[in-house]
Amino acid sequence: MARLNAIPGVPVLIACLAILLIWDLLSRVVMVSGLPPPWGALQEVPVILTDKESLVNILASLRRMSIGFSLAVAFAVPVGLLMGRSRLVAAFFNPLFMIIYPVPKAALMPIIMLWLGVGEMSKILVIFLGVSLPVIYHSYQGSKAVEEKMLWSAAAMGLGPMARLLRVVFPAALPEIMVGCRTGVVLALITMVTSEMIARQTGIGNIFFNALDMAQYDTVYAMIIVIGILGFLCDWGFEAVRRMLLGWAAPVHDIAVGSA
Amino acid sequence: MSALHAVWRRNISETLAGALPIVLALGIWYVISAWNFAPASLLPSPVTVFRRFLVLLGDPQFLQNAGATLYRLFVGFGIAVMLGIGIGILAAGNRTVAALMQPVIRVLAPVPKIALYPALVLMFGFDHSSKIALVVADALFPILLATYQGAVAVDPKLVWSARAAGASQTRCLFTIVLTAALPSILTGARIGLIIACIVVFLAEMILSTDGLGQLLVRAARNFQTVDMFVPIIAISMLGLLLNAAFNMLSKRLLVGFPSQN
Q: Cβ of A110 and B43 within 8 Å?
C-alpha cells in the first residue's frame, strides 16, 4: 500500500475509485432518491465531450474563464506588490477590499447584465472580480515579506524604485503570487460555473439546466463529473507549473479552497 | 511623547486614506445617478437604495426570507464545523485515516461545489436541506484543512507530557491537540463562515422558492433595480457583521495564545 502510494497519480486514482464506489453504494444500498448509479453518468461523459454543441459551449466557457483570469492577474499582481511595499497604498486599498470581500461576486451577474448586456463582457467582468481579491491578497503578503536587505542592496547598486519592484520584489514574491494564482484559477472556474448557472443562457450552465429541464439526470451528473475534472485539472496544472518555475522555493502544501 | 504623536498622526492619515476610495465610490455612484448620467432604472441613487433597505428591514416578508437564509447558513455552517473539526482531528491522530483522506480531499477540494447543487436539489428537494447540504460541502474543506494542518503542527512535546502524566491517546487528542490547534481552526472556520454566507445566497439565486438570493432574482425578473441592490447589500453586510463577530469571539477564545497576524 505504501509503495503503491508513492507512485505519482496512483493515490488520486484510488481516491477517484473510492468516490465512485461510495456514490454507487449510496445509490444502490441506501437508495438516496434522485441519485442514479455513477456508471450511467460516466457513460454520458464521452457523449457530452464528443457532442459538437456542448463542446462549443464548454470551450466558450473556458475561453471566458481564461480571459477573465488573465486580466485579473495582470491587474491584481501589480496592485498587490505596490500594497506590500507602500504603507500608504496598503492603507488606501485595505478597507475597500475588506468591504468587497464578503460580497458574492457571481450574484452581481444580474446587475452587470443590466449594464453591459448578456454578452461576453459581463461574464468576463464577473470572473475578473471573483479572481482579483485572492491574487491581490497573496501578492500583498508576498511583497510585504520581501527581505529589506535585498532592497537596500539593490538600491545601493543604483536600481530605481520601479526596477526594484520588477527585479527584486516580483521574483521574491513569486512563490506567494503563485499560491494566489492557484486559488485564483480554481475561483475562476467556480465563478464561471456559478455565473452561468445564474444567467442560464450559454456555456456550461446552459447544458446543466437543459438537461435538468428535460429530466436527463445522467447528463446532469455527467456535467458534474466534467466540471469536477476541470477543477482538479486546473489545480493540478497550476501546481505543475509552480513546481517547474519555482523549484527553488519550498513547496507550499496548500490545497486550493475557494468559493465565488 | 512626540513619537507617540507621530504614530497617532500616521494612524489618522492611514484611516483617512482608507476611507477615501469608499467615499469616492459612493460619491461617483451618487453623482452618476443625481446628474442623470445613467437612468434610474439602470442605476438607482444610493440614497434611494439605502432608504429602501431601511424600509425592507421593517417588512415582515423580507425578514422571513432573510430568516430562511440565516437558518440555512447557520445549520450548514454548524454541520461543517462539526464534521471538519472531527475528521481533521481524526486524520491528525491516525496515520491510516490521514493516508485515506488526503487523496480524496486533494481530488474534491478544488471541485466547484456549486456544480453539485442541481444534483443536491434532485436528492434533497427544493426545501432547506439541499441548500444546507451545499453549504456543508463548501464550508467543510477550509475548516477540515485548517484543523488538520493546525493539529499536525502541534508541538509533540505537549502530547508527550500529557501521555507521561497518564492521559489516554483519545483524551490527548481532544484536550491537548484540539486546544493547541485552536488558532488555526478558528482561521479556517472564519473562512468557512464567509464562504457559507456567499454560497447560501448563490444557491438561492440558482434554484429556490425563498431566501435573500431569490428576492434578488425575483427583482431582476420584474426589472425592479432598487430591489436588486438591497439583497446584495444585505448579504454583504451580513458577511461583514459575521466576520467582525467571529473576530471578536476568536479574540475572546484565544486569550493567552501567542498573537498572530
A: no
